[in-house]
Amino acid sequence: MAMPNLSSIINNSATQGNPIEALRIFLEREERMETAKQIDKMRFVGYVLELGYDTAKIITSDPYKLAVGGIPRGSFLIMSPVNTAAKAPPHFTLLRVTGVSPTPLSNQVQQTYFELHKKSMPELDVWTQSELQWGALNCDVLGMFYADPKNMQILAYSGDVNNVVSAHRYKVFAPDEPLLKLIVNGMVNEEFSYSLGELRTMECRLFSDDSPNTVPVNISMRDFKGTRTAMFGKTRLGKSNVVKLIAQGIIETTKNTNKVGQIIFDINGEYANDNPQNLSLKSAYPNRCQVYALTQRAGTISNPLRLNFYEQPDTILDVLASLLDSDNRKSIYITSFTNAKLPSIESIASQPENEKCRSIRKIQIFWAILKKAGFTSDETRLRAKGLISNNARHFDPHFAAGLRTAAYQAKNLNLPNPPNSLQELVNELEVISEFRRDNANNRLFLTGSGNALFDADDIAMLNFLNPSSGSGPTVLRAYSSYHSSDASDFINDIVNLVDKGITVILDLGNATDQIRRYFADMISRAVFSHQEVKFVNNNLGENFVQLYFEEAHNLFPPDNKDLTGIYARFAKEGAKFHIGMVYSTQSPSTINKELLAQTENFFVGHLSSQDETKSLSRVQIAFQGIEDDIMRSKTPGFMRMLTMSHRFVIPVQSRLFEATTNQI
After folding, report:
1. DSSP character for 263?
2. Within 13 A of 559's CA, how many CA atoms are on the CB side?
3. Could you say which DSSP state residue 553 is in?
4. DSSP 8-state code for residue 594
5. What number of other Cβ atoms are within 10 A of residue 536's Cβ?
6. What does each C-alpha distance from 604 to 231, 521, 580 come to in angstroms?
7. With contact defined as beta carbons under 8 Å apart, do 591 and 585 qualify?
8. How far apart are CA 15 and CA 155, in angstroms?
9. Can you name the residues that pair with 57 across neighbouring β-strands?
10. In the predicted model, what is the mean pLDDT of residues 217-230?
């Protein structure tokens, strides 16, 4: 073995403590093995046949491939220049095997095989066997690992190579375990590192006894704070498990600071509740997770997740429409009611004075419907909403005296004082509704300016409040479990919990898509507004919010052109306001391309369609060349991962989510 010269001694000294030292140790061992002719113990696999900046073709032989346990497609190889280690700091080029390539002798080899088959494959002589065992592999050039010239103790990586010399000047090796750890984890920040699983270059586990032992794959939780993370793959193949691991990593790496709060929109209840195949995040971290549930589940401590039907009339009517439709309640008068349009309470204050009265009456009719249906109310809170105009106010529609007198006389009732409570409002509107049904053309139903007192939406709601036939508001009683008269308080509670680094799990199992969308929209807007205020006041500091969305195609449809919606703002402005999100869906093509273009981290399981893999590689070039592998692999938990710390795709078998020994 040659004595080291002065240049190599200086380089070795400068890189002490740098992970790239694993390369020097590896090459020195390879040189000793070669000198001792211990070929079966070497990691050498061949030479470079052709070399470019993006691709390489290498020549290898069966004994070399068998010695390293095989060279599957997608596996990593390293390329190191020959006889230059003493002249340059340690470095190597990373290759990824993409397929088999013909050699210059391919035609002659095929001819030999043909002749052998014709002769029933007699035993080969050693010279023919030596000729036939050589082959070539195509590889992608992924980049280069090297010692940072500005600080030789720091490992650096570039997505390109600084030089390409003649092919004969390189040797190619299958990396050993220390080098694989450098390749996979070398650029991951150790302070925020968290174990995701093990390196798995192929789905097949056969003939891998001589491969390196288990190589852990770590992720840096810093990569997920304030960034966008996509989770793609067919159902039941491990997306939710990886989501749990990411959420667990955030909890574990912030246990001393509580700087990252999380909100998980749990549409199947699997993050909040245990089942025979599932350990929930809540069970693993009972002190760091808080569940809000639409339906209380046995064994899970949770706070009620309720809507205040009175205070959000503009959106609640859509929710009721969804619930009624799912229960097949499609009578004409019910459909007319759910098709009505209501203003938001907040919008009334900015309306012209001559429009306020009509808007307030619409909300009053809706309130009367809810009251008659049996929905609880806090009348003090409703008064505080400030429904006041020159005429209608609070619970008083302020109908003209002539109309009120005629309506009550028609029922042989004494004229009461104007309504001052919800029940009095219900009584008043029932009398007016019945009088209107019998006297629709009466001039009493015209305003002073000659316009109709009630428009089509008003009439639809009055007919629902007091129908001539049918059960009317009582059909809504089945949905009272979604309502609470003080429900709006939970939004502030959730925002405050997130500020304290708590993981909030919203158990939306058994809810309709409309209910899920309603909660997602409402809470997302509240979180965004809260973070925006902190940004304006320079109070963000190191605090982050992490949001988790499943069935993301419903929130980020590919044809959505609205760039002002809350989810579009997450994609565009989330990083500025320290809002990160993890979104899951089965297919990349179902997600808005603007969001995909802004996404930093990807986890991709099995996709069955070429259109899907092409859609993925078009938006993220790092996935080019591995589309076929993604389509073939169907093992649960087997993912292709790309993060901000991993500049190239890492194939990983994610570990099964489980509680840590020391729960926090």
Report:
1. E
2. 0
3. G
4. H
5. 10
6. 6, 26, 19
7. yes
8. 9
9. 50, 138
10. 96
Report pTM: 0.83
In 3D space, the residue among 639, 632, 633 whose CA is nearest the CA of residue 654 turns out to be 639
149 Cβ neighbours under 8 A, 6+ residues apart: 89
Name 80's bridge partners: 171
Which of 99-108, 234-243, 396-405, 506-515 is the least confident region? 99-108
Beta strands in 214-253 (DSSP E): 216-220, 228-232
**Could you give phi then psi for residue 524, rounded to 5 degrees?**
-60, -45
- Which among 278, 281, 274, 279 has a CA at the least distance from the CA of 297? 274
What pLDDT digit, counting tens, does each position of 320-357 carry?
988 888 788 889 999 999 999 999 999 998 998 888 99
Q: H-helix or E-strand containing 443?
A: none
- Could you tell me how far CA 54 lies from the centroid of its own chain? 31
Please report the pLDDT score of residue 306 as a whole number: 84
Would you call 549 helix, strand, or coil by DSSP? strand
Distance CA 142, CA 160 (A): 7
In the structure, what pLDDT confidence band is assigned to residue 117 with cuts at 50, 70 and 90?
very low
| Paired tokens of 487 | 């429900």
Share of the chain above pLDDT 70, in %: 90
| Cα distance between residue 507 and residue 510, in whole Å | 9
* DSSP character string of 50-85: EE-SSEEEEEEEHHHHHHTT---TT-EEEEEETT-T
**Quick one: the chain helix, strand, coil %, rounded to 5?**
40, 20, 40
Residue with tokens 């590896």: 26
Q: Is 264 exposed, middle or buried (0-12, 13-18, 19+ CB in 10 A)?
A: buried
pLDDT at 209 > cutoff 60? no
- Assess whether pLDDT exceeds 80 at residue 12: no
Question: What pLDDT, on a 0 to 100 scale, did the predictor assign at position 190?
Answer: 85
Name which residue leads in pLDDT, 556 or 119. 556
Q: In one letter, which amino acid is 10?
A: I
Higher-pLDDT residue of 134 and 612 is 612
Q: Hey, what are 177's tokens?
A: 């375990």
Q: Which residue has the tokens 């993220």?
A: 620
Beta pairing, strands 44-51 & 55-61 = antiparallel
> What residue type is assigned to position 254 of the chain?
T
Closest by CA position to 232, among listed 590, 558, 656: 590
Q: In terms of Cα–Cα distance, which of 215, 283, 305, 334 is closest to 518? A: 305
530, 544 Cβ separation under 8 angstroms? no
Q: According to the model, what pLDDT value does residue 513 have? A: 80
Q: How far apart are CA 16 and CA 143, in angstroms?
A: 23
Sorted by sequence, the CB contacts under 8 Å of residue 88 that are 6+ apart come out as 11, 81
Q: Are 581 and 568 in contact (CB under 8 A)?
A: no
